[in-house]
Specification:
Elements: E1 2-8, E2 10-11, E3 14-20, E4 30-31, E5 34-36, H1 43-55, E6 59-72, E7 75-86, E8 96-103, H2 116-128
Parallel strand pairs: 1-7
Antiparallel strand pairs: 1-5, 2-3, 3-4, 3-8, 6-7
C-alpha cells in the first residue's frame, strides 16, 4: 500500500486546498496538497519535498493530525495529514490548477477527493475545539 502525505494548512478558521488539474487522476477534485512517500523517506521530508515540487513553496512540517486508508480502483493508499505552515507564497502549480483558502464550513459545496474527506472531518473538528 502506498503512503501519501498531505498538508493541513489552517489559518484563521480557513484551510488551504488544491484542485487537481485537467488530465490528472481525480481532475477537478479539491484536496489537501501533498504526495507519495518515497522508500526510506520520513513523512516530514516527503511532504516538504512534495510541496516544493508541486507548489514551489517551502514549508515547516509539524505533527501528524490524522490518517486513513482509502481504496481506489487504481489501488489503496494510506493518507497521512501533517500540520503544516508555509514559508511563503506559491511560485508554481504542477498537478493542480488552483489553490484556494476555504472556510471550514464551506467545504460541503466542493467536490473533494474521496480519500481526503475523513481526514478533513478529523482535522477541522480538532481546529474548532
Amino acid at each position: 500500500m502506498k503512503q501519501v502525505v498531505c498538508a493541513a494548512i489552517i489559518k484563521e478558521g480557513r484551510i488551504l486546498l488544491a484542485r487537481r488539474g485537467p488530465g490528472e487522476h481525480l481532475a477537478g477534485h479539491w484536496e489537501l496538497p501533498g504526495g507519495k512517500v518515497e522508500a526510506g523517506e520520513s513523512l516530514a521530508n516527503a511532504l516538504t519535498r512534495e510541496l516544493l515540487e508541486e507548489l514551489g513553496v517551502k514549508a515547516q512540517v509539524g505533527t501528524e493530525l490524522a490518517r486513513s486508508i482509502h481504496h481506489y480502483e487504481r489501488g489503496s493508499i494510506e493518507l497521512i495529514a501533517l500540520a503544516t505552515d508555509l514559508e511563503g507564497g506559491t511560485t508554481h502549480l504542477t498537478v493542480h490548477d488552483a489553490l484556494q483558502w476555504f472556510p471550514a464550513d464551506g467545504l460541503t459545496r466542493l467536490t473533494l477527493a474521496p480519500a481526503d474527506i475523513p481526514l478533513l472531518d478529523v482535522i477541522l473538528a480538532g481546529a474548532r475545539g
